[in-house]
Specification:
- By secondary structure, the protein is an alpha/beta fold.
- Helix content is 43%, strand content 15%.
- Strands 7-6-5-4-3-2-1-8 form an eight-stranded parallel beta sheet.
- Helix 3 links the parallel strand 3 and strand 4.
- Helix 8 crosses helix 10.
Length: 254
């Protein structure tokens, strides 16, 4: 078996939350655990309105800046859109794509997600590809089929080598914002299945790619999840807005 050299990555998705005061206070508080846990990569994805403020506050920090979505378009008459190329001016490195809320609330299908993935990479940024099943699909034991379909759409569009510069986030939709969390064993099985699926195309890439778990991760549950061999960190929602909770998750990965 190839040795696992993947770094733990803890990423906070702030969703539609924040204010100038909150951004300043939260970033200040997160600098401490990020500094104390240098083996863990830490990233935050604030709303786009706060990227400039966050960039300034993170100038002397190891915390990486991310964005929550990107337009298919680079520039032009697209009112309300934000392009991946523009993010580069704010030192953004990661961009979420295919988050379950985008798939559900904005009807983004696998093909559109794959196109956005490509545009993000073309801008020199790292897409964080979110995949996962609904509660109905979970109950019907369709988890593996769903995540493989979502992955295959990106592979068909961009090729397996595109995952050399990407992160995958497995987020069971039934565990997002519900307080439910997949047990470490359930999450590990899905992560292992994802890696095995990718290995059918390229074993080296499958071993290298970081696969995060995203589904109501808390400080108390993080250590058990991170102990699993194929779970490389977390995409954190609600707990990312609480400095103490997010710090506990970072510390669990150290």
């Amino acid at each position: 078996m190839t040795q696992n050299t993947r770094q733990t990555l803890v990423m906070g998705n702030w969703k539609l939350n924040g204010s100038k005061t909150m951004v300043a206070e939260l970033i200040k508080a997160l600098k401490v655990p990020a500094t104390e846990c240098p083996t863990v990569a830490v990233a935050i994805c604030p709303p786009v309105l706060f990227l400039g403020q966050a960039q300034t506050l993170l100038a002397d920090s190891a915390i990486i800046l991310g964005a929550q979505d990107a337009s298919l378009n680079t520039e032009g008459a697209y009112t309300g859109e934000n392009s991946a190329r523009m993010y580069s001016e704010f030192d953004v490195q990661y961009v979420l794509v295919g988050h379950s809320e985008r798939r559900t609330l904005h009807q983004e299908d696998d093909a559109l997600v794959a196109e956005k993935f490509a545009v993000i990479q073309q801008a020199g940024l790292t897409p964080v590809l979110c995949i996962g099943e609904t509660n109905e699909q979970f109950e019907a034991k369709e988890t593996q089929a769903v995540v493989e379909r979502q992955l295959q759409a990106v592979i068909d569009k961009c090729g397996i080598t595109a995952l050399n510069k990407a992160v995958i986030a497995y987020e069971p939709v039934w565990a997002i914002g519900t307080g439910k969390t997949a047990t470490p064993e359930i999450a590990q099985q899905v992560h292992a299945d994802i890696r095995a699926f990718l290995a059918n195309s390229d074993a080296e890439i499958a071993n290298k790619v970081q696969i995060l778990y995203g589904g109501s991760v808390k400080g108390a549950s993080a250590a058990g999840l991170f102990a699993m061999p194929d779970i490389d960190g977390a995409l954190v929602g609600g707990a990312a807005l609480n400095a103490d909770e997010f710090a506990a998750i970072i510390q669990a990965g150290a």
